[in-house]
Design a protein that fits this description.
There is one protein chain. The chain is 15% helix and 53% strand. A hairpin with a 4-residue loop joins strand 3 (51-60) and strand 4. It has an eight-stranded antiparallel β-barrel with strand order 1-2-3-4-5-6-7-8. The chain has 129 residues and is mainly beta. It has helices at 2-16, 19-22, and strands at 24-31, 37-48, 51-60, 65-75, 78-84, 93-98, 109-115, 121-128.
């Protein structure tokens, strides 16, 4: 009987653990500073406390696929993520995403600018799937 109760508690913990700890998939669009979409795909992120890690499976506007890793943190509703291992000139860019002005705190959408070591930047829009 005790074994059954322990299994039930473990199952309850898995069901009630925040989704980011188990992994979340985000639909992501990258836009140039002029608002033209250049890349789209998904981020799969997991969290441990305020730390975030994950991977991106993306596609350039010409259809060429590419992938990179994600590493960063989440504090409140602000995400700060470094884009590592990209095959273009945007590896090492740091994105700071937040809920858009006027959206409610429960919004599943984030927007922010990625700043790159080269000084260039671009906008990333992300929505939980």
């Amino acid at each position: 009987m005790l074994g059954l109760a322990a299994k039930a508690v473990v199952a309850l913990v898995f069901v009630t653990t925040p989704a980011l700890a188990a992994g979340q998939i985000w639909s992501v669009i990258e836009e140039s500073s002029s608002g033209v979409m250049t890349v789209q795909g998904t981020w799969t992120m997991t969290g441990d406390g305020d730390k975030i890690t994950g991977k991106a499976d993306m596609q350039f506007d010409d259809g060429k696929p590419f992938a990179y890793s994600l590493e960063g943190s989440k504090k409140g509703d602000i995400y700060t993520v470094t884009l590592n291992g990209r095959s273009d000139d945007k590896s090492g860019c740091v994105w700071t995403g937040h809920i858009p002005a006027g959206a409610d705190a429960g919004s599943a959408k984030l927007i922010g600018k990625a700043q790159c070591p080269s000084g260039s930047g671009f906008v990333i829009k992300a929505s939980r799937m």
